Amino acid sequence: MSEPAADAATPTDPWPAPRPDGPVDRVVSLPGSKSLTNRALLLAAIADGPSVVRRPLRSRDTLLMARALASLGTGIEDRDGDWAVTPGSWDADADVDCGLAGTVMRFVPPVVGLARGTVRFDGDPHMRQRPVGQMLAALGALGVRVDDDGRGALPFAVQGTGTVAGGTVTIDASASSQFVSALLLAGARYEQGVDVRHVGKPVPSLPHIEMTVQMLRRRGVEVDDSDANRWAVAPGPVRAVDDEIEPDLSNAAPFLALGAATGGRVTVTGWPSRTTQPGDELREILALMGCDVTLSGGDLTVVGPERLSGVDLDLHDVGELTPAVAALCALAGSPSHLRGVAHIRGHETDRLAALATELGRLGADVDEREDGLTIRPADLHGGTFRTYADHRMAHAGVILGLAVDDVLVEDVATTAKTFPDFATAWSRAVLGTSPDRSGAPT
Ligand SMILES: O=C(O)C1=C[C@@H](OP(=O)(O)O)[C@@H](O)[C@H](O)C1
Ligand SMILES: C=C(OP(=O)(O)O)C(=O)O
């Protein structure tokens, strides 16, 4: 498979977040969705023939997925920026680097049961802390042998035997919707399919499970999701289908925030009229914060108010939007309560602790609660915003930098997880220019 080009600019660290000198007026096009790209790649790899993933995201997370599937024996070739995927016979041992990608650590092991060989999984240091034990236990119950050190975490090895019995399994997926998506994505290829029942606190990020279900149905897979907390996938082939990947609507958050926080106007092109991406919720969230939001002919335009309003929001379904929304709340003129997101403590970092610490470091008045944050208006000041290897923490930092002088964002390059060369795109959007190699705006 083809490797990505090196980033055009290597930003300085910490990186001075650019601040515009007034309301901006910009049109922005965004790279593809991580969640759609990684599902499309995985489903293409277990499909009944070759297919093409069009306009895929090429970022760290999707390259890790492509490499994982290629190391199993899948053909993945670059075709004018698209990825042509040819299913292969999976009959060798392999090592999979999950990096910090939840979608790789959770989605790949269930399909490895269909391979013949030992596949070892590991990842970045923090990845060894992210939850996966419930899903590994469920795989064991479905007939896939997983060897780990008893912690139910990376590193672990999956012993593929070529077939998986499948059947009914009970799982507590309150830590991550990806446990459910992972089992469903592989389930059609199990002998008895898979019937997943969730027991426990509510499953977060339900739109992402809906995304999984829709992508399976588009490939002719029968999915019964008529009961709450139960998803049944019938055994059968996964049809090879070419998918065109939508722009990443969660990564639209900082760009829409640019309009929202500056009292300016930002249009994101290619916004789908119907989508399962949780980022679509930004339309409602930004409207609640006082923005004028219009979707017309695939262009989503956000016009910011003079001062943003605080909001009281349950973000349980759209937890990955929390860092950007919290940053906007810190700029608002009234208090905000963000609720329902205890599970994001298991994301790239403990996002509630990280946001409370880093917003607070720049003067924000923040209370960290077990399942959320309370943020009250305060005078903010410059300083270093730490990001904890979390791309969405970097987004939060640059959003603050829109309204506060001298915000330095630590390790802005961590955005490469889901957005190639974010610093250049961000500088261009904020200033209408791009940074030079030293990171200084030109
Ligand atoms: O299935 C997916 O593509 C995702 C599901 C969500 O995970 P959680 O359910 O763990 O929050 C989301 O936060 C993550 O960014 C992507
Ligand atoms: C939680 C996230 O990622 P992951 O797919 O690694 O879980 C995220 O992108 O916000």
UniProtKB/TrEMBL annotation:
Record bears the keyword Cell membrane: no
Pfam families hit by this protein: EPSP_synthase
Start and end residues of each stretch annotated as Disordered: 1-24
EC category name: transferase
Associated pathway: Metabolic intermediate biosynthesis; chorismate biosynthesis; chorismate from D-erythrose 4-phosphate and phosphoenolpyruvate: step 6/7
Keyword entries, A-Z: Amino-acid biosynthesis, Aromatic amino acid biosynthesis, Cytoplasm, Transferase
Domain of life assignment: Bacteria
UniProt keyword annotation of Transcription present: no
Residues where 3-phosphoshikimate binds: K34, S35, R39, S176, S177, Q178, S205, E320, H347
Catalysed reactions listed for this entry: 3-phosphoshikimate + phosphoenolpyruvate = 5-O-(1-carboxyvinyl)-3-phosphoshikimate + phosphate
Recorded family membership: Belongs to the EPSP synthase family.
Assembly and binders: Monomer.
Protein name: 3-phosphoshikimate 1-carboxyvinyltransferase
